[in-house]
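[Discussion] Sanity-checking designs against the backbone

I'm trying to build intuition for which residues belong where. Below is a structure token string of 197 positions. I'd appreciate it if someone posts a full sequence so I can compare it with mine line by line.
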């Protein structure tokens, strides 16, 4: 009795031993036209194994690549698609380059710096909208600051805003009182509870 562990290792186990035997038989056919017919038959059977993938782009192309891999690139036929090369199969992908965003204060994040830039460059002309954006930025800065510091220093937040806005938004000497985050969270919870009722 032969066990699968004693047999040749499958290149693509998801197709199973019988498909691999069909591919091996196809390689041994001497006549090129017969070999091509056999390969088309194997592709049809392989496609029937995964009918849910027929809507995937290049499904047939993928099947022909798999046939070439299963034959260890020894199947000499005219492929209807350009198949993957053996050396490309085992090559490592190129290293991904990540963006190295420069941030003055990492705890505020890049998006907040972009918002401050919009505010400081006077891209918003409506005064009410500008005040709302400023308030949104300040509350978000306080939330971000609280994640990394136990004690909240609002003057420090105003100084950071001054620095991040290239000295265009100056609230360092203002008497603005930022909302207490515990109170804000309670207000949001109350609003959610009212919506549920």
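Best answer:
Here's mine. Compare freely.
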């Amino acid at each position: 009795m032969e066990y699968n562990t004693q047999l040749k290792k499958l290149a693509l186990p998801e197709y199973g031993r019988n498909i691999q035997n069909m591919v091996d038989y196809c390689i041994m056919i001497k006549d090129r036209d017969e070999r091509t017919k056999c390969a088309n038959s194997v592709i049809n059977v392989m496609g029937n194994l995964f009918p849910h993938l027929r809507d995937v782009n290049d499904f047939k192309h993928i099947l022909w690549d798999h046939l070439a891999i299963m034959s260890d690139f020894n199947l000499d036929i005219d492929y209807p698609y350009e198949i993957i090369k053996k050396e490309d199969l085992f090559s490592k992908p190129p290293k991904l380059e990540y963006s190295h965003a420069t941030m003055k204060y990492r705890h505020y994040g890049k998006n907040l710096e972009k918002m401050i830039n919009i505010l400081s460059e006077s891209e918003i002309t409506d005064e009410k909208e500008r005040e709302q954006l400023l308030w949104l930025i300040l509350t978000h800065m306080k939330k971000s600051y609280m994640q990394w510091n136990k004690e909240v220093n609002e003057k420090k937040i105003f100084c950071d805003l001054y620095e991040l806005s290239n000295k265009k938004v100056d609230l360092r000497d203002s008497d603005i009182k930022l909302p207490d985050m515990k109170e804000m969270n309670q207000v949001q919870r109350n609003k959610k509870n009212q919506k549920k009722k």
